[in-house]
Design goal:
This protein has helices at 2-20, 26-56, 65-69, 74-84, 87-104, 109-128, 135-156, 163-173. The chain is mostly helical.
């Protein structure tokens, strides 16, 4: 995963230089690296907690790990990067964290799509709300988009899961 983070940083540095016309110095790259490492750590901790809850739950629906994977905080990093750095880095951060999350969770394309949609929604919704009280509206917007993407992905995969599992996943995604 650290190799992927390194490749992402090199790509980010070159893309940032191409988009803005200036090359970010070591301080800008250090901030990007720290955010990536921080939110990859947050995703790993959330994955550990989801696994622990699934293993200790009773019943076929609540003991399924796939129900809890939709609750991973993919949008948290993008919102933080937007608030501290700006929109362009937040969009690139969403792409990078979606790639890393997808690899971390087994290379599933649906995880990539879900994480990317969640991160982009968080960054774009944060753009419209500048007050602290508006974070609830950003969270609600991200939650609604997460549920919609979850349903679209289940339809795309042929709706192989029982409706109870999809409902529990939708609750976790919101």
């Amino acid at each position: 995963i650290l190799g992927i983070v390194g490749l992402v940083l090199v790509g980010w540095w070159r893309l940032s230089a191409r988009l803005t016309g200036t090359v970010q110095g070591p301080a800008g790259m250090s901030m990007v690296f720290l955010f990536l490492v921080l939110f990859i750590g947050v995703e790993r901790v959330a994955l550990f907690l989801a696994t622990a809850v699934a293993r200790n739950s009773i019943g076929p629906i609540m003991s399924d790990l796939d129900v809890y994977l939709w609750a991973l905080p993919h949008a948290a990093g993008a919102v933080t990067v937007f608030m501290l750095v700006g929109m362009q880095p937040a969009i690139l951060f969403s792409l990078c964290i979606a790639l890393v999350s997808s690899v971390m969770l087994g290379g599933d394309f649906s995880v990539f799509v879900y994480a990317l949609a969640s991160g982009l929604t968080g960054a774009l919704a944060s753009q419209h709300f500048k007050q602290r009280a508006a974070f609830t509206r950003v969270g609600a917007t991200v939650g609604l988009v997460n549920v919609a993407v979850l349903l679209v992905l289940h339809l795309w995969q042929g709706w192989s899961a029982p409706i109870q599992t999809v409902a529990a996943s939708a609750v976790a995604a919101f």
